[in-house]
Design a protein that fits this description.
Blueprint (H helix, E strand, L loop, with lengths): L2 H15 L28 E8 L5 E7 L1 H9 L9 E11 L7 E14 L10 E7 L2 E2 L2 H5 L1 H9 L12
Organism: Piscinibacter gummiphilus
Pfam family, one: Cytochrome_P460
InterPro entries: Cytochrome_P460, Cytochrome_P460_sp
Length: about 170
Amino acid sequence: MNPLQSLARAALAVLSCAAVAAPPPAKPDASPIYGVTVPEGYRRWELVAPALESAPLNELRAVLGNPRAIEAYQRGRLPFPDGTVLVKLAWKHEPSKEFGAALVPGAATTVQVMVKDARRYPETGGWGFGRFVDGKPADLAQHQTCFACHAALVKDRDYVFTRWKP
């Protein structure tokens, strides 16, 4: 089975269990399905790694981790412990006005959050997901794709794409 077929099969599996992944969000600023919110103070967290996404998204990305995430990365600990939180910031990239060979952040696209809580999210590998655009949760369809992609491509890394780059 090719990766695209695996992704499609995983998406169907997630759609069938998404409604039981977590109780409905209690707050209007929480993600659908998982109830994840953008954590306070996350911009002061340590950088896990940057990334450059080419077509079709054309984004610069930075993944930040809370202290529990950073400790797990530093120790090479998988699976990540409960309480781990990862936040991905993403921007469209554009050439620097001062130095054209450099790509710099342009317009912000999303803030994405992964929260490890094995008791709360047993159907999704222990992870809850949140995707936010302009500070508001993205729609349900966008959240239904989160776990399917992680399950199809990085299940062996505790569903986490980003590797530690100190």
